[in-house]
Amino acid sequence: MQPKLTLFFVSFVLLLGACSHKSVTSSSDAQKELTAKYTNKVGTATKEDFVQEFGPASWCRDEADLKTCRFYKKIKTEWMGEPPTDRVHRETFDEVLATFDVNGTLKSFKATAQR
Question: Are 74 and 94 in contact, with CB atoms under 8 Å apart?
Answer without folding.
Answer: no
